Amino acid sequence: MPRPQIQITNIVGDLGGSPPALDGVCLLVHNAPAAYAYTENVFTSLKQAEQAGLTEANDNANNFLLWEHVKDFFTANPSGELHLLRVSVSATYANIFTVGNAENTALQNYLASKAGRVKIVGVSIVPATETHTTSISADLQAAIPLAHAFSLAEYTRLRPIEIVLEGRKFAGTAADALDLRALNSGNVSVVVARAQNRAAEIGALGNNYAQIGLFLGSLSAVHVGRNVGRVRNGALPNVQTAAFSGGQIPYFDYNDNDLNILSDKGYIFMDTYPAVSGWFWVDDHTCTLPNRTDAYIYLNRTAHKAARIAVRTYVERLKDEFRVDKTTGRLPAIVVQSLQNELQKAIEREMLNNPDPTRDIEISAVTVKIDPNQNVLASGKIVARLQIVPLGIARIIETQVQLINPAN
After folding, report:
1. pTM score
2. Which of 4, 70, 95, 385 is least enclosed by beta carbons within 10 angstroms?
3. At 236, is the secondary structure helix, strand, or coil?
4. How many CB atoms lie within 10 A of CB 314?
5. What are phi and psi of 340, to 5 degrees?
6. How confident is the model at residue 21 (pLDDT cuts 50, 70, 90)?
7. How crowded is the C-beta side of 144, counted as CA atoms within 13 Å?
8. Tens digits of per-residue pLDDT, 142-159?
9. Which is higher by pLDDT, 8 or 277?
């Protein structure tokens, strides 16, 4: 027997609430040369990535910015989760999103192997030559609708994703730039910005690149209902002078009107504002018309998260038996109400009234409606309509300033 003493036992339990959300898990698809070796492909810290072989020295040795993007990701989101998928060094953006292509199959298989864990896919492809002279390359332009179709296919496989593409070597005038909003590809976004101060430090290796890693980290760090460019998120880290991927400096090479044009055309770049220091993402544009429900990344992420919750909620009901009314053959009202409540409460708990006080609301309201007159006996199907009211985003705040004489 030990001598008399006080003994303390640490018991680890559950404080209640919800586990951490995994809404920001990212995959970065890249075409670094095979000689750029790394021993793991899923990372939760920069240190882990560096220990696996992703280093600045290997960037320089292999003439490819991979550590740079990984470093940027974890600078913006130190608690993020980043996956890497290598495709062939000769791969193009169009290859990756063309059905039947080996690169497309590899991406689809990777997403399937992760069973929906990956929510955001970023793609950084460095071509052998970069000769385009207007906004983005022909390869990237051709790939945008293909990437949108790929995302829609993943949605039908119950693995909804957002796709973000690195828009390298932005070139030409704002007036001549391709209108991304006209491409009807609402699940795809293009980032064309970088910190010019960092590009200068990198030297020739930094020519033409956009900081897709920084954007992915920024996006993964905010909840699904939040704009990645929100000023209260804080200024982008380590950005002293912002630029486009072609080296153009905002408010110098492009004036206010040019920047308005490029924002209206759906490009994601960095912007700054009076009375606050630093640079911020201009908005979370996608490549479709601004009046559509998939015109901004936050709208997509909100809808996609609700869809995932619907799958989790109703999957246990699959092939379940339901008693029908003996006179009408329809679902009884109590069954309809039960099914509606199951999904509505699941959405509310996760996105509206989460018991974890640190989790912000992600939607404004939710309703679930099921038509009680559905003939389940005949169709074998129950159709539920899930309606989400998203959060509003204040893109314009108009303040009317007036001098008055209170004596009048």
Report:
1. 0.93
2. 4
3. coil
4. 16
5. -65, -45
6. low
7. 25
8. 999 999 999 999 999 999
9. 277
- Cα–Cα dist 237/245, whole Å: 17
Q: What is the pLDDT of residue 8?
A: 54
The pLDDT of residue 377 is: 79
Residue 136 near residue 167, CB atoms below 8 Å: yes
Q: In whole angstroms, how large is the CA radius of gyration of the chain?
A: 24
Residues with Cβ within 8 Å of 221's Cβ and at least 6 positions away in sequence, in order, are: 24, 76, 77, 79, 80, 233
Q: Do 135 and 171 form a contact (C-beta atoms < 8 A)?
A: yes
pLDDT at residue 237, as a whole number: 97
> What is the per-residue pLDDT across 193-230, written as a single tens digit (0 to 9) for each?
999 999 999 999 999 999 999 999 999 999 999 999 99
How crowded is the C-beta side of 244, counted as CA atoms within 13 Å? 27
Query: Could you tell me which of 141, 143, 398, 395 has the C-alpha nearest to residue 264?
Result: 395
pLDDT higher than 70, residue 17: no
Among 359, 199, 195, which Cα is nearest to 281's?
Answer: 195
Three-class secondary structure assignment of 319-376: CCCCCCCCCCCCCCHHHHHHHHHHHHHHHHHHHHCCCCCCCCCCEEEEEEEECCCCCH
Alpha-carbon distance of 252 to 91, in angstroms, equals 35
Question: Structure tokens of 386?
Answer: 């899930």
Burial class (CB in 10 A: 0-12, 13-18, 19+), 392: exposed
pLDDT of residue 404: 87
